[in-house]
Amino acid sequence: MYTLLKKEGAARRGTYSTPHGTIQMPAFMNVATAGAIKGAVSALDLKEVHCQVQLCNTYHLHLRPGDQQVRKLGGLHQFTQWQGPILTDSGGFQVFSLAKLRNIKEEGVTFASHIDGHKIFMGPEESMQIQSHLGSTIAMAFDECMQNPAEYDYAKHSVARTTRWLYRCKTEMNRLNALPNTINPQQLLWGINQGSVYDDLRIEHMKQIAELDLPGYAIGGLAVGESADVMYHILEVLNPYLPKDKPRYLMGVGTPANILEGVRRGVDIFDCVMPTRNARHGHAFTTEGIRNLMNAKYELDEHPLEDGCQCPACQHFTRAYIHHLLKAGEMLGMRLMVLHNLYFYNTLLEKIRTALDNGCFEQFYRENIEAVSTRI
């Protein structure tokens, strides 16, 4: 259940109660695609970096090790040893982005595995069954994620099919949750708003799916080719039509600036691979801007990645040492960078929540929006 505690403009401060704990919102979800954060970071590390929610990938876990195997091992919480909330995406985005060969029909999508090319079919029922086997806290509905810009007529037909798929997802989720041997009989289904970059399609789709009174709603199909200004415009257009008493999830977004702008437009929860992917390539997010630790100027730099930072990397190691590790190709360098960036993202959201609590989010936004995007 979502509880709205406070608002400042469109920005919202709330909590969301789940079977695996309460999420303080706005929040950032830490992406553990195959059940682990890339960069040798385990569930046991996540509390140290102030993680609230772990996001795992339905498509990847279905292919390897297999959702049936995860089910036999007690579900994702037991398998990964993360006991807090877990969100699983539906697999739709990966089907449409990774699969070279795919055939979309009303029943679902037939596609070739990106690992070995074998044929797989996934529709709304299959996605719900896989996510039920994984036992996540929140399961995302199966939808089609279009590339932007999509042709208007194609987007219109795709949105209508995504709506029909959502009804099937809800029916199947209700059936699965009622089974006696379901790992998580309280699994929550969140719907996804689509409509490419077309205001009327976005609004009409949001109206339609809001009628299902689901526990949460996501805004999908953004940050996939359109400009940031277009994304912000869609958020503003949707704001009046998003249920006030449900969490709002902007999928796959984004940079620290995107998060500040998203919160300002009413978004409650975000996820993105950026903090971990950029970390593995030597880019550290800080309150002063982005540092590239591969640069030679850090060879003799004895400061931590960020002065005053309390993350596991900054408490013990210098920029010079991490620069050396990255240059030498040592996994520890990537691990320390990932820990720092996740800590930065999670504590950025903590600061946003505190600013909302104190009624000074707009001031916080103005003081930080330029700095977080600066390259040092």
Automatic annotation (TrEMBL):
Domain tRNA-guanine(15) transglycosylase-like: 10-371
Gene: tgt
Function, in words: Catalyzes the base-exchange of a guanine (G) residue with the queuine precursor 7-aminomethyl-7-deazaguanine (PreQ1) at position 34 (anticodon wobble position) in tRNAs with GU(N) anticodons (tRNA-Asp, -Asn, -His and -Tyr). Catalysis occurs through a double-displacement mechanism. The nucleophile active site attacks the C1' of nucleotide 34 to detach the guanine base from the RNA, forming a covalent enzyme-RNA intermediate. The proton acceptor active site deprotonates the incoming PreQ1, allowing a nucleophilic attack on the C1' of the ribose to form the product.
Catalytic reaction(s) noted: 7-aminomethyl-7-carbaguanine + guanosine(34) in tRNA = 7-aminomethyl-7-carbaguanosine(34) in tRNA + guanine
Note describing how the cofactor binds: Binds 1 zinc ion per subunit.
Protein name: Queuine tRNA-ribosyltransferase
GO CC terms of this entry: cytosol
Active site: 89 (proton acceptor), 271 (nucleophile)
Principal EC category: transferase
GO biological process: tRNA queuosine(34) biosynthetic process
Record-stated family: Belongs to the queuine tRNA-ribosyltransferase family.
Binding-site residues for substrate, renumbered to this chain: 89-93, 143, 194, 221
EC number(s) recorded for this UniProt protein: 2.4.2.29
SUPFAM superfamilies: tRNA-guanine transglycosylase (SSF51713)
Assembly description: Homodimer. Within each dimer, one monomer is responsible for RNA recognition and catalysis, while the other monomer binds to the replacement base PreQ1.
PANTHER family: QUEUINE TRNA-RIBOSYLTRANSFERASE (PTHR46499:SF1)
HAMAP family in the record: Q_tRNA_Tgt
